[in-house]
Amino acid sequence: MQVFSQKVSVSGYIKEASSGESLIGATVIDAANPSVGQVSNVYGYYSLQLEPGAYTLRVSFVGYKPKEVKVDLNSDATINFELEEETSSLEEVVVSARRKDENVSSVKMSTERLQIERIKSIPALFGEVDVIKSIQLLPGITSAGEGTTGMFVRGGSSDQNLILLDEATVYNASHLLGFFSVFNPDAIKNVEIYKGGIPARYGGRISSILDIQMREGNNKKLELSGGLGSISSRFTAEGPIIKDKSSLLVSGRRTYADIFLGLAQDEDIRNNTLYFYDLNAKFNYQFNEKDKIFVSGYFGRDRLGFQDLFGFDWGNSTFSLRWNHLFSDKLFLNTTALYSNFDYGFDVNTAGLAYQWKSGLQEYNLKFDFNYYLNNNNTISFGANTIYHVFSPANIESKDSNIRNLGLANDYALETAFYISNLHEVSQKLSLEYGLRYSSFAKVGRDSVSIYEEGMPRAEENIVGVDVYDSWEMVKYYGGLEPRLGIRYMIDSKNSVKASYNRMLQYLQVASNATAGFPTDRWIPADSYIKPLIGDQVALGYFKNFSENIWEVSVEGYYKWMQNVVDFLPGEDILLNDKIETAVAEGKAWAYGSEFLIRRNLGKTTGWVSYTLARTQRQIDGVASGNPYLARYDKTHDISVVLSHQINDKLSLSGNWVYATGAAVTFPEGRYVIDGQSIPYYDDSKRNTSRMPSYHRMDVALNWKLNSKRRGYEHELNFSLYNAYNRKNVFSIEFKNVNNKNPNYDSDTDGPVTSTTPESVKTALFGIIPSITYNFKFTGK
């Protein structure tokens, strides 16, 4: 009779030796049989199942010294690992936060993880290191325009990206109207973006997931760091509350443009306001081997003001409370309570017009995420979450007692989801990740819904009744299944082919006529007339590593089709429309393209070159005469070159060059003169048939590590040039029409004027911008 031996588990956490930070994606393998192994999760936890016996376990993570431990396993065991950073020689500078062969061996495709040190080395506007601008240098991701942080992923609009900070939603990730993002790099640990092949645990957006984790803080010793830049300064303090058990990190950033305004001779300029600030904080405490909590928050705000006449401010706040619990060495639970808030406000004080405008939205979220390590070939993830949404579109308070206040009623909704997925190593050649997610969305009261005459357009004059709903009464319910599938086939140890499919449902979207994603954008929920977005995407890719994993090459093709896409009808009001369904039309959209990436991860010179060839189109009744038209953010070609060269142990030089086809736009056909005012005329049948000029730019930076006589103190200077060759990239085009010689036009009466020789005035936003930043770091004993 054959006897099957009972396997035992070895599990634990993998951390950084100097700070105690958990390492995401570290590998634990049986040194004698490298095909047997596991990867640590987002909290650094791993679980490996082995036959009883003696083993040598090898733990590795790129940029850290590998560690080997001999163990004799007769029963389940807990082994924690701490890895020390590797002091690489100049010939072996590592710039990847992934396993050396992950590009080929992982089931993941259409996914990129950027190391924060790599992000910090990329030259940036005014020297401000920016997570989202760095993401825009990857294939398949384009920017809204010069200086902006809005991003468009594989043909999706900016509101179709879910941006998470420690799992909390960030609804507007921009500072200073989009020129900088809200993420302070000193507080960030890990940045990962999913463009396709999105795991079942994620939902709510149809284009991408940008998952950003904050650092936990040094739990071994005090550490102070920061920087003094051209327009802002940063400071971070972190250290143990109880050594090896608890730590606290606090990080702040503020611009000081307002200080320079105060030095101006012109009093009107001195009274203006212009600044933003960020504050990140994170606390963690480990009760025992099975229980650990994390508490983190983000608070940021922008303030713009023109004397006492006009004020504008907006900001985000997020809060995350997470509890990690080990039920057993195989079952890991993360329970999360989340809060997100985004709001903005105007304060106007001009002659005959004085009011305050407030708008915002809140999200309350409770999540349960389980990892079950069934065996070395199957890791099962499952969970559920519930989100309560509150939308406050507008509340306008007049400062004139003779003018009544205005406001739009709040909207309320409840969003839920359940998911299960399995990462399945079928064989050494074939791996699968498959899963299913069910999501639902309930629009609830208090609410009132207009009823329109059947067969007639949704318009004010066609309202025949109103349905009124009390608090928590169901207004409209949507739900659906979201299947996910990823396949990886290893041709050999250096080559693989991958494919993926995912369906995503999105129940919230932005009402905006702009592209860049401004703070005033209005988020609207699915309701009785506006259906949820449905996005399906298939992707196929070839991945190759060579020269001992120093070089990576990948080619991916994708096709995405989208249902219930909303666009806004010409001339319709958005911000103050209490019947938003009258201003929109629904239709379909599709996007397809190819992405090419070649990357060098090791050596004195590192970096990547990416190229994207893409097309995005829409077709919506009532827009462009019902014909297909290009999306506003369609860009045929997009190229990025990102390089870094280590000159010596003190100096490094980095640079990037970008090129993109100009965005699709609608130019005016002429103008109307009404009450003496010239108003542009647009032919909607020609929507987005023109293009802005092509965009290209080069940035360079030099990083100089300074000598320090004080032990534990490091400091450096960063010199950068944004737009190094002074390219005048067009930010806006203004058309000045010249009256034609049309005999039917009477200049003494108001009427349409079509210009045969329109003059255009092109405005460039930035020339060459030099900047200097001083960075420092002090580590206690």
Please describe what this structure looks like.
With 781 residues, this protein is mainly β. It has 3 domains: 8-87, Immunoglobulin-like (Sandwich), CATH 2.60.40; 102-212, Ferric Hydroxamate Uptake Protein, Chain A, domain 1; 213-661 and 693-726 and 766-779, Beta Barrel (Maltoporin, Chain A), CATH 2.40.170.20. The protein is 3% helix and 58% strand. It contains 5 helices and 52 strands. The chain has a 22-stranded antiparallel barrel. Strands 9-16-17-12-13 form a 5-stranded mixed β-sheet. Strands 1, 4, 7 and 8 form a 4-stranded mixed β-sheet that branches. The N and C termini lie far apart (61 Å). It is found in: Cell outer membrane. This is Collagen-binding protein. Keywords: Cell outer membrane, Collagen, Membrane, Signal, Transmembrane, Transmembrane beta strand, Transport. Belongs to the TonB-dependent receptor family.
Summarize the structure.
This protein is mostly beta strands. 3% of the residues lie in helices and 58% in strands.
Topology record:
Layout: E1 8-16, E2 27-30, E3 33-39, E4 45-50, E5 53-60, E6 67-73, E7 77-78, E8 81-83, H1 102-105, E9 111-115, H2 116-121, H3 131-135, E10 141-143, E11 151-153, E12 161-165, E13 168-169, E14 174-175, E15 180-181, E16 188-194, E17 208-214, E18 223-228, E19 232-242, E20 246-255, H4 257-261, H5 267-270, E21 273-286, E22 291-306, E23 310-326, E24 331-350, E25 353-375, E26 378-398, E27 406-407, E28 411-425, E29 430-444, E30 447-452, E31 463-469, E32 474-492, E33 495-506, E34 508-511, E35 522-525, E36 533-546, E37 551-568, E38 584-600, E39 605-620, E40 629-630, E41 637-646, E42 651-660, E43 664-665, E44 670-674, E45 677-681, E46 690-691, E47 695-706, E48 713-722, E49 730-736, E50 752-753, E51 759-764, E52 769-779
Parallel strand pairs: 1-7, 1-8, 12-17
Antiparallel strand pairs: 1-4, 2-3, 2-5, 5-6, 9-16, 10-11, 12-13, 14-15, 16-17, 18-19, 18-52, 19-20, 20-21, 21-22, 22-23, 23-24, 24-25, 25-26, 26-27, 26-28, 28-29, 29-32, 30-31, 32-33, 33-36, 34-35, 36-37, 37-38, 38-39, 39-40, 39-41, 41-42, 42-47, 43-46, 44-45, 44-50, 47-48, 48-52, 49-51
